[in-house]
Design goal:
The complex is a heterodimer of chains A (about 230) and B (about 300). Chain A has about 230 residues and is α/β, with parallel strands linked by helices. Helix content of chain A is about 30%, strand content about 30%. In chain A, a hairpin with a 2-residue loop joins β1 and β2. Chain B is an all-alpha fold and about 300 residues long. The radius of gyration of chain B is 19 Å and the shape is globular. Classes of the chains: A alpha/beta (about 230), B mainly alpha (about 300). Chain B: Its main location: membrane.
Chain lengths: ~230, ~300
């Protein structure tokens, strides 16, 4: 069963075109990684799915609902709606709220009625996933380290169950030990009938953690590598 | 500095804080520099005038002879000011936010549209009510009460008290409610908020209404001493805006401290013989420019210990 079907997606910022007619199909239950160098469009692909780029065209079918289309204005306008359809994204740079505490961050992520009602229970689940956050519960996130911020950002995306998780560069700017811990936590996520897509530069980190790898180069998807066993 | 001067300074600070915190909140949460905040002030003044003239005789008839009658009358006036302010805020939302908030360069467009709303409203008020200044029903008379030896005019006591209560309610709402959490999230990172399913369009309406209500309250409180006129909003708008800047746009405690500083500065400057009232604006702007040169993030920048 197809969860996400992207057809001929182009996107960019102003005159700059970053993505060139991307085609991608993601099945339910899949753990997918998009790998490629800096500046080749991984982040832009995620941002196009959530309508955060300047302009885009092409179809994005999410669970049978069209969330793509052609537009040249209004970035971010449809983002809350797309999130509420069940797309959870951890953006590059984490997009944290510097003045809010860890606990308030997690509460922000609990947007659905049910998640808000059981937010205490769900916070506990996040703390089980990222034990270092437990004792930081009432600390302002602006004072945390990069690794802790990444955990907060991922935790916020996990507070309400989504059908599609987009995790942008989980290892960016982190010490190797901590990025391994983050990747291991991503492995713990129960995607059920959903899917998870990880954009990453560090291929060795993903070793054995994903079902499928797709390379990205110069705004195009190159080669479906399939399951990879590295060194 | 004698006690009366302190009271005067607090009185000014209270009005300024109501205006500045509204402007600051609007800017940092929905990115709109609301030039129509002065219009909200004037409209709320006239709205209170109309509503007050209609309602006060009723209140007087029902509660005749009660000791708390002046307090009841003040409450009626404040409630009408707050309501009219919030409604006018809703109008600004419909005209100046909803149609353009997702277009390119919204901050500039929003400023132009709200400035247009401001000018049109002032002209409409001139046309409907005429240029004559009108006095709001004076509820307290000119009596004084003595608080620990400090002579306090009733309207001053009311202004300071009502502002503290109102700001307390707004801050508690921001801090404790779910909507407040969403608003603060939006203030600190719009993209992160969007990715948490928080819609700007849905969150903006309560923000605009609440800040409008604050301007309305400021209008009612100030018109106990100053007349209501179509252009009455200009000065509170300008002062509110510079205080919001001084506080570091977006920081509520920063704006409150800045309002205290500027209010005190105004009271003190007015009392110094060789400066006097006519130098108030010069001294104020000089002070604010100096602070912003030294600390570009304003007072809020001194308060926050987080890095962006």
């Amino acid at each position: 069963m197809t969860l996400l079907k992207i057809t001929d997606l182009s996107a960019g910022y102003g005159p700059l075109r970053v993505l060139h007619e991307i085609n991608l199909t993601v099945e339910r239950g899949e753990r997918l990684a998009i790998v490629g160098l800096n500046g080749h469009g991984k982040t832009t692909l995620f941002r196009a799915i959530t309508h955060l780029v300047g302009w885009q065209r092409g179809s994005i079918l999410f669970d049978g609902v069209e969330i793509g289309g052609q537009r040249s204005l209004g970035e971010g306008r449809k983002t809350p709606g797309i999130v509420r359809l069940g797309v959870a994204m951890t953006p590059q740079g984490d997009a944290i709220f510097p003045g809010l505490t860890v606990r308030q961050h997690l509460d922000c992520g609990a947007w659905s009625k049910q998640a808000w009602r059981e937010r205490a229970k769900r916070r506990e689940a996040i703390f089980d996933l990222f034990p270092p956050l437990r004792k930081l519960e009432n600390t302002t996130v602006g004072t945390l380290s990069g690794g802790e911020r990444r955990m907060v950002s991922v935790g916020r995306a996990l507070m309400t169950e989504a059908r599609l998780y987009l995790i942008d560069e989980p290892s960016l700017g982190l010490a190797p030990v901590i990025s391994q811990r983050v990747i291991a936590a991503l492995r713990e996520i129960d995607v059920k009938d959903g899917a998870i897509i990880i954009a990453e530069q560090n291929v060795t980190l993903l070793d054995g953690q994903v079902d499928r790898m797709i390379g990205m180069h110069a705004g195009r998807l190159r080669g479906d590598v399939g399951h990879v066993e590295l060194g | 500095m004698d006690a009366a001067l302190i009271v005067y300074a607090l009185n000014l600070s209270a009005i300024y804080a109501l205006m500045a915190i509204g402007i600051s909140l609007l800017w940092s949460s929905i990115g709109m520099l609301n030039m129509a905040h002065g219009a909200t002030f004037a409209v709320a003044g006239y709205g209170t005038l109309v509503l007050g003239n209609a309602l006060l005789p009723l209140v007087e008839a029902v509660f005749d002879g009660w000791a708390i009658l002046p307090l009841l009358k003040m409450t009626v006036l404040l409630l009408s000011g707050v309501t009219v302010g919030a409604l006018f805020g809703g109008l600004i939302y419909l005209l100046g936010f909803l149609p353009i908030h997702d277009k390119a360069n919204f901050p500039v467009r929003g400023m132009i549209v709200t400035l247009a709303i401001n000018l049109a409203t002032v002209q409409a008020l001139l046309w409907w009510f005429g240029p004559r200044q009108q006095a709001l029903p004076n509820v307290f008379g000119f009596g004084r009460l003595n608080l620990f030896g400090i002579p306090l005019r009733y309207d001053q006591a009311m202004t300071i008290g009502a502002t503290v209560v109102l700001l307390g309610v707004v801050l508690a709402w921001l801090r404790l409610s779910r909507k407040g959490l969403e608003i603060r999230a939006m203030m600190q990172n719009a993209e992160g908020a969007a990715l948490s399913g928080i819609s700007v369009r849905r969150t903006a309406l309560p923000v605009v209404a609440v800040t409008g209500a604050m301007a309305g309250a400021a209008a009612v409180l100030l018109s106990q001493t100053v007349y209501v006129s179509p252009g009455a909003g200009a000065m509170p708008l300008i002062k509110g805006m510079i205080i919001a800047l001084l506080g570091g746009l977006g920081s509520v405690p920063g704006a409150a401290i800045a309002a205290l500083l500027v209010g005190t500065l105004e009271a003190v400057t007015g009392a110094i013989p060789f400066l006097g009232q006519r130098m108030v604006l010069v001294v104020q702007f000089g002070f604010i420019i100096t602070v912003l040169i030294i600390r570009p993030r304003g007072i809020g920048g001194l308060l926050s210990e987080t890095r962006k």
